[in-house]
Amino acid sequence: MNYKFLIYISYNYAIPIGKPLQLEIEKRGYTVKWFSDIEKTNTFFSTKESVIHTIKDVVYYKPDIVLCATNLVPDFITGIKVQIFHGFLAKKRPSKRHVFSEFRMRGLFDLYCTQGPSTTSVFKKLAVKYKYFEVIETGWSKMDPLFPIEASKKNNPPIILIASTFTSRLSLAHDDTVFKEIFRIAETGKYKFKMVLHPKMDKDVVTKWKNLKSSNFTFYDTTDLVPLYKEANILFADTTSAIQEFLLQKRTVVTFKHTFKYDYLIHVNNIKNLERVFCNALSYPQEVIDKIEPFILDLHPYFDGKSSKRVIDTTISFLHNDKRFLKPKPFNLIRKIKVRKQLNYFTFKSFNKPYTINFTNQKDISQNNAIKLSAVIITYNEEEHLEKCLSSLVDVSEEIIVVDSFSTDRTKEICKAFNVTFIEHKFEGYIEQKNFAISMASNDYILSLDGDEALSEELKNSILKVKQNWDCDGYYSNRLNNYCGQWIKYSDWYPDRKLRLFKKGSGEWKGINPHDCYTLKENKKAEKLKGDLFHWIYRDYEEHKQKIENFSTISADAYYKLGIKSSIFKIIYRPAWAFIKAYFIRLGFLDGKNGYRICLQTYCVTSLKYKKLYKHWHNK
Questions:
Q1: Prior bond to 495 cis, omega within 30?
Q2: Strands in 227-314 per DSSP E
Q3: Cα(430)–Cα(509) distance, integer angstroms
Q4: Where are the alpha helices (DSSP H) in 13-116?
């Protein structure tokens, strides 16, 4: 089946934790999306991450498995809630409290995928105590790219990586004596320094280090630290959790004023001794290396780079397992209110028992693996034709999703009568809206329609046959347009082929708004289906003329963004050619009076589009 994963984070430093998991999920052909409960984090995502931007859309996405690299997760979204951790336990502050105080239970997670024995042992005890979650050791996904471990390079000069926590009391980056000494040593040319700072670091401190001018010092504004770990010979740090990550390579770490005198670290308290300590650390003292090995075996005994695989295997298994032995999660009212306030999403819904998908027998499994079709529809004030659309889909689709642009008519009421999944989403363009609708579908096979379209009986039968023997990436059919009560058989409007049935991931909606087109990827195969897709386009001629103004504006704006230019020649030539092609070459005259009207408006919209585009370029 197609499992739906959600990677839930807060800060951008969690992105490198989720990336290996994303790659593993995609490798298996499952769906994976990201969500950050801090809006500004969205600016750090690349085009390779599929991001959900609002918590409302997360609710509609209905994930099966929520992988959390953060402390809080909404209790009101579906799926098992899995804590995958946003760092190693750094143990940076002395504490006289109970050992459990290092592990704060928030009553929101069903499963903890722990990093190694040092965390697993404590969480196992907590699981026995609280009884509402399970603990399974998997290793930590962030470390997968670090493996296999490479031998330390004999860099000349040696490379020293500097990392610092953001807490001012513990941070070496806040210490002016450290700043001055690093600058002095860098100027000697004995070492090359590379530096990263925590994303929460004070901006003034970041600016100070960025402005350190030396040919032997480079500041990196990144959260992807693994490439820097691999290049560095040693690490210079304070109490940051980067220490534990770097130690997995069995390379030495020099710490400045660490709160604990761990024997697997090389400590320095007097900045005047720093250069001498660096020299010692670069010799990799055997007594220190011998202490590192047992520490990392307790911390993270996985050196195969397959922790992400173990996490995904574990979570899928846990999803299906009988979890009746687990108690419901605590009521936790204050924390639930906090989550709702933070997300500005208030609901009484709460999933206090772990989410479960059961297969009772082999027949259920085979049925689950059969082709299931999601019909996705975009709408705005479609009450006139929507019932025809939805009625035609009932027999061919297992899921119907309507993405509505906040209709003001009976659209929502009609959808409720058909028991569809109704999603309100801001309209950003036809192409963008249709791609969003696909992302909301639970199934791998998609039928995409507009609210004023419906399947003919012949087309329905064709789709049912395809579901029994799907052997293409996509299927197209002819669209038959109804204009002012007349079915149009010629001009540019027929056969008007549209690819609307496809496998998720085979392509995407492209084109130039408002003329969207589902485009298959290179080397993907498509076939034609028998039957027509009905389309009720305009009730009367006046409605058509009114739409021309809006469509020409949308087209002109889209052309302008693409860098397409207009000219006096295009303003004259393009409309004339559009009319001639539609009316004479495509036989529009055979549709009579309405055929002429259609071709005339084709001329008008083309003319207006190039006139408006011309103004864009000449009124800059």
A1: yes
A2: 234-237, 253-256, 266-268
A3: 9
A4: 15-27, 55-61
Q: Which two three-digit tokens encode residue 595?
A: 């055929």
Alpha-carbon span 619 to 3, nearest angstrom: 51
- Residue with structure tokens 């003919």? 456
Residue 452 pLDDT level (bands cut at 50, 70, 90): very high
Sequence-separated (6 or more) residues with CB below 8 Å from residue 442 = 2, 4, 62, 372, 374, 399
Instruction: pLDDT band for 354, please (50, 70, 90 cuts).
Output: confident
The token duo for 225 is 């630290």
Beta strands in 425-574 (DSSP E): 445-450, 453-455, 474-483, 486-488, 497-503, 507-512, 515-520, 526-538
Burial of 213 (0-12, 13-18, 19+ CB in 10 A): exposed
The burial of 261, by beta-carbon neighbours within 10 Å (0-12 exposed, 13-18 middle, 19 or more buried), is given as exposed
Q: Going by C-beta distance under 8 Å and a sequence separation of 6 or more, which residues neighbour residue 1?
A: 368, 369
Is-contact 92 265, C-beta < 8 A?
A: no
588: tokens are 């529009």
pLDDT of residue 362: 37
CA torsion 275-276-280-281 (nearest 10°) is -30
- Estimate to the nearest angstrom the gap between the alpha carbon of 517 and the chain centroid: 23
Average pLDDT value for residue range 467-476: 92
Confidence band for 435, pLDDT divided at 50, 70 and 90: very high
Q: Average pLDDT for residues 237-255, to the nearest whole number?
A: 95
Taking residues 62-87, report their average pLDDT. Answer: 95
How large a percentage of the chain has pLDDT more than 90?
65
Task: Say if residue 90's pLDDT is above 70.
Answer: no
**Amino acid identity for residue 229 in this structure:** Y
Domains with residue ranges and CATH for the chain: 4-143+305-343 (3.40.50), 149-299 (3.40.50.2000), 370-538 (3.90.550.10), 544-618 (no CATH)
